[in-house]
Amino acid sequence: MGSSATAARTALGRYGEDVAARHLVESGMTVLERNWRCDLGEIDIVARRGDVLAVVEVKTRATTNFGSPLEGVTPRKAARLRRLAARWLAEHPVKPAEVRIDVIGVVIPHRGAPQVDHVQAVA
Amino acid sequence: MSLGRTRAVTLEGVRGRVVEVEADIGSGLPKMVLVGLPDTSLNESKDRCRAAVINSGETWPNRRVTVALSPASLPKSGSQYDLAIALAVLAAAGAVPAEPIRDAVLLGELALDGRLRAVPGVLPATLAAAQAGCRRVMVPEVNATEAGVVDGISVVAVRSLSHAVALLRGEEPPDDPPVEPLATTENLSWQGEDRWSGLDFADVRGQPAARRCVEVAAAGGHHLFLEGPPGAGKTMLAERLPGLLPDLEPEASLEVSAVHSIAGVLPADAPLVTRPPFLDPHHTASIAAIVGGGSRIIRPGAMSLAHRGVLFLDEAPEFACHVLEALRQPLERGSICIGRAERSATFPAHFVLVLAANPCPCGLDFGKDARCECTQAAKRRYKDRVSGPVRDRIDIYRKVEPVRRHEVRDELGGVEGTSVVASRVAAARARQQQRYSGTPWRVNGEVPGPALRATWPVHATGAAWLEEHLAAGHISARGADRALRLAWTVADLRGDDRPMLDHVKIAYALRLSEPLPAAWPTDLPLAAEVA
Fold this sequence. Notes:
The complex is a heterodimer. Chain A is of the alpha+beta class. Chain A has helices spanning about 5-25, 75-90, and strands spanning about 30-40, 40-50, 50-60, 100-105, 115-120. Helices cover about 35% and strands about 35% of the residues of chain A. The longest helix of chain A is centred in the N-terminal third of the chain and has 24 residues, at about 5-25. Chain B folds into 3 domains: about 5-180, Ribosomal Protein S5, domain 2, CATH 3.30.230; about 200-405, P-loop containing nucleotide triphosphate hydrolases (Rossmann fold, 3-Layer(aba) Sandwich); about 415-530, no CATH class. In chain B, strands 11-14-17-10-18 form a 5-stranded parallel beta sheet. Chain B has a 4-stranded mixed beta sheet with strand order 1-2-4-3. A 3-stranded parallel beta sheet of chain B has the order 5-8-9, with helices on both faces. In chain B, helix 22 runs parallel beside helix 24. The radius of gyration of chain B is 27 Å and the shape is elongated.
C-alpha cells in the first residue's frame, strides 16, 4: 500500500471528525476536547451539554459498499471507549451527572454533502 | 414508531401455541439480539432475516435491533419464525404498515434472496392460530393449500419477502418465481403415494377365517395378531386392511394431516389426508422411528403417523423388545407422550395394530406333520419376544396356514372383493357410531370394559357362558372384556341389535384362534340387506 493511500485515508478521517464536530455544535453541544490520547488509545471528540458528557467516536467512510461506518465499531472497540471515558474523567476535573458513549458515522460520498448518523449511548 | 409486533406459532407435538414476536429498534450500534430462548436453528434466523431484507431491496435498520419472542420462558426452535421476525423489524422501522400484521400470524422460512420457503407443521400451526382467534395467517405459497384446510381464518399465500411487503403496502406484488416445496415430500414419491391403491381383498385366495378376522378388525377397530408360516398370506391380508376402512371423518382427517404435516410428509398438492394411513416399518426400526423422538423438535414416529389408520409390524418377534413394549401406552391411551430434557410432546396414536409372526424361528411349525426342527426352547424364546402384556392387548389372534389347493378350488365362484367387505364394514361402523354418539368412543375397540359391561351388556346367556370360561381359566379378565367388544362387532357386522350367545362364542373363537363356528361366516348377511 502506497503512502499516498494512507495519507488519503488519514485525511478522510480527519475531515470526517471535522464534520462530526460541526454536527455536535449544531445540535447544541460544546466540544471540550478533540483527539485526546493516552496509553489506552484515542478519544476522537469529548463534548458536553449541561450535565451530559459525551465521549464520541467518529467513523468515516467514503462509501457504504462495505457496510455502514457504524458497523466498524466492534463490541471490543465499544468496550475500549468505556475505559477511555473513565480515564478521561479521572484526568479532568469535570463531574457530569451522565456520561454517554456516542458514535457518529460519517459517509463522505464523492459528490454531494456528507451524511451524518449520530448514535447515542451505545455502550 | 420503533416497535413492530406480530405473531407466529410454536409447536409442541401437534398442539400449537401462538408466540408474540416483537421487534424494537433502539439506540445502539448495529446489532441484532434475539431473546426468548431461541435454539441454534432459530438464532440463525437473525442472519437469514438480515440478508433477506437487504436482498429484497429494503433497508435493515442501522441500529440495535431487539427481537423478543414471548412467552419468553418457552424454548423455541426452528426456522418458521423468519417471516414474522423480518416483517416485525420492517414494521418497527416504519417500512411497512404495522397495523395489518399486528394480529396476523406469519409463518415461513426465508431464503437469503428473500424467497419464502416451505416449513413443516403449517396445518397444526394454522389450526392453533384460528383457535387463538387470529383472523389472518400469512404462509409460504407452497403451504397455502395445507393452511387453507382450516376454517375460519383467511390465508394469504406469499412467495417472497418482497411479495409480503408489497401486499402490506398495497402495491403490485413482484413477479417472483415459485418456490420449491419441502424436499422430504418429494423423496417419498418414488414409492408411489398410491402404493396400496391397487390392492383388493379378492386377491387373497382361501383363508376364509383369516379374511373374516381382518374384516372384524376393520369393523370394530380391533388389534390383530396373525401367526403363520412364510407364504401363508399374512402380509397380503394386512396390506388389504386399510382398504376396508371408511374414509376419515373431517375431524380425524385434520388430526392425521396435522401429524403428517409436522413430520413433513404431507404432499403439497394433497394437504388433507382423507384415507386411513398404513405404516409398515421394518423390524430394524429404532424406538425413535416407531414412537417418535428428537431432542429439540420432537417428531412423530410411525405410531403417530399411523394415527386413525393401520400400523403393521411384519415379523413382529424380530422387532427390538423395547420397541414392542413401547406399544403398550398407545394401545391403552390412543396417544403417546414423548418426554425429553427440554420439553415433552404428546402425539395422537390411535391405530389398528396388526402383528404378523412366524410360528417359530424356522417358520415350519404348522399343521399335523410339521417339518420344524426348532427346539422347544428356541420356540419359546421366539414366542416370548412379543411379551404377555402386549399380547394381552391384542383382540384377535389367528393362526394362518398355507392355502391348500382344494380351498382355492372351492372358491370357484370367487371371493368377496374390497368393495363388498368395505360396505359391510361401513354399515357396522355406522351402527357403532350411532350407539356411541355422545361418548368419546367411535368403535367397539375403543370402549373401556367397565363402560361396555355397564351400558351395553351382551345377552345374559352369552355373559354367563363367558363367565364359565373365565372361571375355568380359559380366558383372562382382560381377555373376556376384549371378547365382549368383539361380540359387539360381530353383532354389528351381522346387523343384530345385541350380542347373543352365538356372537360371544364367535368372539371367543376370534380371540383364541379357535375354529370359527360353521354357521359363520357363510350366512352373514350383506350390509346392503341389513341397511
